[in-house]
Specification:
With 173 residues, this protein is of the alpha+beta class. It has one domain (8-169): Beta Polymerase, domain 2. The chain contains eight helices and seven strands; from the N terminus they run βαβαβαββαββαααα. The protein starts with 7 loop residues before the first strand and ends with a helix.
Length: 173
């Protein structure tokens, strides 16, 4: 993706290792900006280079906006096909992070990771969000988080997520 100068970043468990409390993750998650209607221009080259994890990974990706791949050493990774303005903002906010001497990749910001974890609304994601607050604390941009998380919750009619976010940010279980 970097060689092709595509707009992308790591989200999910590896980003949690950077911004939150380390935990075991079994795959690597990316967001890749493809836009709407151009997805095949990204899916085909990726499938030329990596194996799909499921039969007809391209059709699944077009239907579900996530491409399920694996490396030659069978490490699974998911590529979310981004197109929304907020997804573009996530990429814009991403910064490079060195996981080791040979691996430097863009990861989403702590603020965006917190938003995505809250919006995913799974127990494990809320634990990840708590870890982000523990490690990042006052470095988090609360107005940014409130604005974007509020927009996502309004668009999907899930205002209860905002209550969970407030509790986590206030350090309440």
């Amino acid at each position: 993706m970097a060689k092709r100068q595509w707009k992308f970043c790591i989200i999910g468990g590896l980003a949690v290792m950077r911004w939150g409390e380390a935990r075991v993750t079994q795959d690597v998650d990316f967001t890749l900006i493809t836009g709407f209607g151009n997805e095949e221009d990204f899916i085909e080259p990726l499938l030329d280079h990596f194996s799909g994890r499921i039969a007809d990974a391209a059709s699944f990706a077009l239907a579900n906006r996530v491409l399920l791949l694996q490396t030659s050493s069978e490490i699974p990774f998911d590529i979310s096909l981004g197109a929304l303005p907020y997804e573009e903002k996530i990429i814009e906010n991403a910064t490079l992070f060195s996981f080791d001497d040979n691996t430097v990749v863009p990861t989403c910001s702590a603020d965006d990771l917190f938003i995505m974890k809250l919006f995913a609304a799974r127990e494990k994601d809320w634990r990840d969000a708590e870890g982000i607050v523990l490690r990042q604390g006052k470095k988090l941009n609360l107005s940014y988080i409130s604005s974007y998380l509020g927009q996502l919750c309004s668009a999907t009619d899930r205002p209860e997520i905002l209550d969970v976010a407030r509790r986590i940010l206030e350090g309440k279980p």
